[in-house]
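Encode chain A's predicted structure.
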Amino acid sequence: MRHVSVGVSLKAYFGRSQARAWFDEVAAALLGHAALRDPDVDVFVIPTYLQVDDARRAFDDLGIAVGAQDVSPFGPGAHTGEITAAELAESGVRLAEIGHSERRRLFGETDEFVAAKVAASLSAGVTPLLCVGEAEQQDAASAATETVARLRADLDGAPDGPVIVAYEPVWAIGAAEPAPVEHIAVVTRELTAALDDTPGREGSLVIYGGSAGPGLLTRLGDDVDGLFLGRFAHDAANFAAVLDEAVALASARREREARA
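Encoded structure for chain A:
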């Protein structure tokens, strides 16, 4: 059965002390939550590099995975300012966010550069959280074609291993509302099919990000494997509400499998 994965990236919104307070708030809100006991639900938080150890202290005992917001495409060596995938793994980081639209736009990251980061992460045993999505609003079929092409380019030459693909239409990031459910469903189904047709990607998931919040996962149902949250999850209650939906989705999937 495909897992349901829900997580949040803090980007650079919080300083370290503010992040620590948020970690404590989230840990208290999720203590005993059914999502943390469900073997088919995965929960992750992606802080800044400097906040990784603080996040691990708050979340390791709860089973919440900690990720990083970037990773170097290079191995250890003379690459000033870079953080290697090997060091992330050594630091207990389990996911690396790669290819976010802000990295592509602000820092000129190409698909070739993103693919190198994906390869480095998989080689070190760190799961890539690969962000893909069309820049301009368009019809769903065209968006799916563009996004699947980007997915294939970003996975080109990568070693075997599962990835988490976050479909994030750029035009929906930071918007008042997420992309329409019908639009999301068309694209995520095509991304899932592309992963299923790619040898060595067993266990991969497709989640949605882009102004995602409570209620969306329930509306999307089996068309996604979870949500990638942003500012909505700065309210710990919103994070917990989405995890309620994740538990319900995982339970429904198990029941269908049992009947099959």
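The chain has one domain: 4-259.
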